[in-house]
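Support request from a user on the community tier.

User writes: "When I paste my structure tokens into the form, the page sometimes reloads and wipes my input. The last time it worked, I copied everything first. Here is what I submitted, just in case something in the input itself triggers the reload:"
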């Protein structure tokens, strides 16, 4: 069980939103967490009655050298194949973005086996600091500091562009076979979580492979520790991946631009943890869409002090869980904006 999402306002806009909630034609508190959600959005957007959100989804894709350790149920080739599927409109996130009228950007930050995109389809933006994806984090640093930095900056640049285009809510997503291994290792390092709590089933591995994956994470942590790893960026370079670095840069920049972020699942939340460890002010802008079925996600949310809105047993990634929660945010704001007050409707207030 996770705690319900509750929020006490911190700004004049948030306080005004909370006063408005108490005047709308409903028993106080009867819209539950949707009331907290409207007040949180008003608080963060700096407006007592915010307009409908203009959401954008950026999905970052990259491959992971640690995939050779047999830690995923799927082969590395799937990453590039799914990027083509995102762009062609056939993936879960493509369907959800279209359904909820959200801008979708796909960014290849290190796909090892890219698949040509059919003519006429929207192209995926390509920025590849390492053309074959990150290195095997069990044996060596996943990225050099400069490679990690290029990916981080690519993510930050995407956030800047989306905000400049008028988007008022940013959602990050990822695609990268074996990235639950990298994310678990990072969660252990930055959140002080034991590997047996951080490592999950990812794409659906069996008990034997799960035990092996946990061992891979344990050994990778020991290797990175022995290398004297200290800062969040250094841990990210040791144990992360290019799409995780890009996501962390994306979240940090969203906060710097003062735009709220709706987090997706395990990998996205661990990337947000990296951003928060690097720049603590980022935490102020984060909202958790859902609790993934991936074992480590609840721990990652707890480390960040976040309460997820939904718990649907999702374990897909791609930003899909955040996209599924998006209509809840729009509903909370529509009610907040457009319901009548007791005075307007002539309804007796107690
Ligand atoms: C067809 C397919 C579509 C996906 N979309 C997201 N993921 C998810 O699964 C991967 C992580 O799990 P692991 O660490 O076990 O490889 C990531 O790419 C993630 O986004 C997918 C995985 C597959 C196979
Ligand atoms: O929670 C997630 O984001 C997740 C879980 C399993 C596989 N891929 C992603």
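"...and here is what came back when it finally went through:"
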């Amino acid at each position: 069980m996770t705690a319900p999402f509750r929020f006490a306002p911190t700004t004049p806009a948030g306080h005004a939103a909370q006063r408005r909630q108490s005047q709308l034609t409903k028993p106080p508190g009867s819209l539950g967490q949707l009331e907290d959600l409207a007040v949180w959005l008003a608080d963060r957007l700096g407006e007592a009655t915010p307009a409908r959100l203009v959401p954008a989804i950026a999905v970052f894709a990259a491959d992971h050298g640690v995939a050779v350790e047999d830690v995923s149920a799927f082969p590395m080739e799937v990453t590039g194949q799914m990027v083509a599927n995102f762009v062609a409109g056939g993936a879960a996130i493509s369907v959800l973005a279209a359904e909820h009228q959200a801008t979708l950007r796909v960014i290849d930050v290190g796909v090892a086996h890219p698949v040509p995109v059919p003519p006429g389809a929207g192209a995926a933006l390509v920025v590849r600091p390492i053309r074959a994806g990150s290195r095997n984090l069990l044996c060596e640093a996943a990225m050099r500091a400069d490679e990690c930095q290029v990916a981080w900056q690519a993510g930050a640049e995407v956030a800047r562009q989306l905000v400049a285009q008028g988007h008022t809510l940013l959602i990050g997503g990822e695609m990268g076979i074996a990235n639950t291994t990298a994310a678990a290792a990072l969660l252990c390092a930055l959140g002080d979580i034991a590997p047996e709590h951080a490592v999950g089933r990812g794409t659906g591995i069996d008990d034997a492979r799960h035990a092996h994956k946990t061992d891979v994470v344990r050994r990778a942590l020991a290797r990175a520790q022995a290398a004297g790893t200290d800062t969040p960026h250094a841990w990210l370079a040791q144990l992360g991946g290019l799409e995780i670095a890009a996501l962390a840069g994306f979240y940090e920049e969203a906060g710097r631009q003062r735009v709220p972020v709706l987090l997706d699942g395990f990998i996205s939340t661990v990337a947000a943890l990296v951003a928060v460890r690097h720049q603590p002010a980022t935490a102020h802008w984060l909202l958790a869409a859902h609790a993934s079925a991936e074992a480590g996600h609840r721990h990652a949310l707890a480390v960040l002090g976040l309460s997820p809105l939904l718990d649907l047993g999702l374990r897909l990634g791609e930003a899909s869980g955040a996209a599924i929660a998006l209509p809840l945010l729009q509903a909370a704001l529509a009610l907040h904006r457009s319901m009548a007050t007791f005075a307007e409707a002539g309804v007796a207030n107690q």
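Agent notes: The reload is a front-end session timeout and is unrelated to the input. Residues 145-164 form the longest helix (20 residues). The chain has a mean pLDDT of 97. Escalated to web team.
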